[in-house]
Recover the amino acids of this structure.
């Protein structure tokens, strides 16, 4: 029987939203299994600090990339940067996301657009750009972070719950498309988890 940890050693994972919360925990758990990492978020210092800790603790290669993933061109920038570094991505963790609490009638349109772009647009862009290589190599994993909020409409979080419903539907469809390719597509639906998420959401 193969040890799951052994199969992951020396693979490369990209983790979005790795500077905090669930993404940082993904990074810690993957590093502990010998996975090399590219950590992506806006907070350079937090990324650098986590990268240094994981290098020292686990001897893995960790680089950080400061990128605002709410920008419509960000998945293109990410893919170009990966190409320039000759990075072959085995594992993509689409985790970066945020919520905002309140009625849509009082919401800032730009903030709502950013939420859709980050939670949905960039997640689709990253997946669309990295999946072909995985399929070609017959190996890879995409993990999309949805939410229990994706299973139902949530008044006062209308945009957020709709983005997570999208992530859930998109991920289930991709699971079907990738059957038999050697690529694994997973969606995770956390319930309320104690991270800075709720400070951001207000
Ligand atoms: N906490 C929960 O109860 C819960 C439940 C279900 C699902 N989730 C989902 O889990 C994922 C992670 O959330 P979390 O709870 O770990 O929250 P968190 O601690 O606030 O982490 C969010 C991460 O996303 C990054 N991020 C936010 N805006 C970004 C942007 N414009 N560009 C790049 N990175 C950005 C943040 O980094 P920077 O600020 O440094 O950019 C941070 O690393 C989200 O998709 C969230 O919807 C959370």
């Amino acid at each position: 029987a193969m040890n799951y940890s052994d199969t992951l050693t020396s693979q490369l994972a990209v983790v979005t939203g790795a500077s905090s919360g669930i993404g940082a925990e993904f990074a810690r758990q993957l590093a502990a299994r010998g996975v090399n990492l590219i950590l992506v978020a806006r907070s350079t210092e937090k990324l650098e600090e986590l990268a240094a800790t994981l290098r020292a603790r686990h001897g893995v290669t960790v680089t950080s990339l400061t990128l605002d993933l709410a920008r419509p061109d960000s998945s293109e920038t990410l893919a170009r940067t990966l190409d320039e570094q000759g990075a072959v991505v085995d594992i993509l963790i689409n985790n970066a996301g945020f919520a905002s609490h309140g009625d849509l009638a009082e919401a800032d349109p730009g903030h709502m657009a950013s939420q859709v772009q980050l939670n949905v647009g960039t997640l689709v862009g990253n997946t669309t750009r990295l999946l072909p290589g995985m399929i070609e190599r017959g190996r890879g994993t995409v993990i999309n972070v949805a939410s229990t909020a994706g299973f139902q409409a949530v008044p006062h979080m209308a945009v957020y719950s709709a983005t997570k419903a999208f992530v859930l539907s998109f991920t289930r469809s991709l699971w079907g498309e990738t059957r038999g390719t050697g690529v694994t597509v997973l969606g995770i639906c956390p319930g309320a988890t104690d991270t800075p998420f709720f400070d951001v959401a207000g």
User: Anything to note?
Assistant: Strands lie at 12-16, 36-41, 62-66, 91-94, 140-145, 183-188. The CA atoms of residues 109 and 115 lie 10 Å apart. The mean pLDDT is 96. The pocket of NAP is lined by residues 17-23, 41-43, 68-70, 95-99, 118, 145, 147, 190, 192-193, 195-197, 200 (CB under 6 Å).
